[in-house]
Amino acid sequence: MRFKPWPRPTPFEDTSRKRAAYRRKQAREQAALPLFADAIAERQLEVDEEMIRRTGQWERQQQESRRQRADGWRRARARLFALKVDQRHAIRALWRICPYPADPSYLGTLLHEIATGRIDPAQPPWGGRHVLTPRTTPDPTSFTEAFRQIGQRTIGGGPKTTGADERLFCGNLGSGILFLTSRVRLIEPNESFYTSSNHRLRDSHVGRAGHWVEVVVRGTCSQTDLGRIARLAQDADTRPVVVRHIDGPPVSLSGSGCR
Q: Residues 47-103: pLDDT tens digits?
């Protein structure tokens, strides 16, 4: 089991307690050298300036931390991909189940321990072989059970078209991971999109009459699975739904001919 990554630090907050603590710090510095108290006070920042400085310092520290972490991942990945294919696959499978936190330094440690012979990928100290079993939903009863949303963007714009949300879903019905792109289409060119709270499949129900939903499937998908996706998508929306594979013909259950 993998440990959860460390939580992201919260941004710096300008609070009354921090301001009071900074004033006490100023007083201590001046009291430490009473003969030079005036000179020390002149070099000390005002409270507002100090809070601004700390905010900028926190942002710079976070940026530098992210840069160092990204460099660490690049170095660890370079070491990993320098290995032979079979060894690389074994280490990647081992990394998924090892008890180390998901951090580049720990991946580097794992690679070092394997290179020095301290850890055998075939017989790790925390367990035996691990067989990856993909998470599948072979017989889903609803669209939300089979697929989860992983992305969103707004398409369109202009005086007659305020835009429609295009959403990306992923799921696995048993034959491999599938990516679905859902977008609302206009039948009548004079119609326009609008967003209301009455949403279903895409979290954005758009338009009055004259709209239909297109779902494009990417990945290995049989005609049976394509028909199942079409039924689930149609059950999740009141408008006509047309489902098609990126390389194949469309499947429609509504019979509206909205293609």
A: 999 999 998 898 899 889 889 999 999 999 999 999 999 999 999 988 888 888 888
Beta strands in the chain (DSSP E): 148-155, 164-172, 177-186, 195-196, 205-206, 211-218, 241-245, 250-252
pLDDT in tens, 33-54: 999 999 999 999 999 999 999 9
Q: Which of 225, 95, 98 is nearest to 245 (CA)?
A: 225
Q: Is the separation of the CB atoms in 162 and 194 below 8 Å? A: yes
Q: Residue 120: count other Cβ atoms within 10 Å of its Cβ.
A: 12
Question: Does the global pTM surpass 0.70?
Answer: no
Could you tell me how far CA 162 lies from the centroid of its own chain? 27
Measured CA to CA in angstroms, residue 43 lies from 20, 40, 50, 233 at distances of 18, 5, 12, 67
Residue in 165, 241, 166, 159 with CA at minimum distance from that of residue 192 = 159
Give 3-state DSSP helix, strand, coil % of the chain, rounded to 5.
40, 20, 40
146 HSE (CA, 13 A, CB side): 26
Strands 177-186 and 164-172: antiparallel
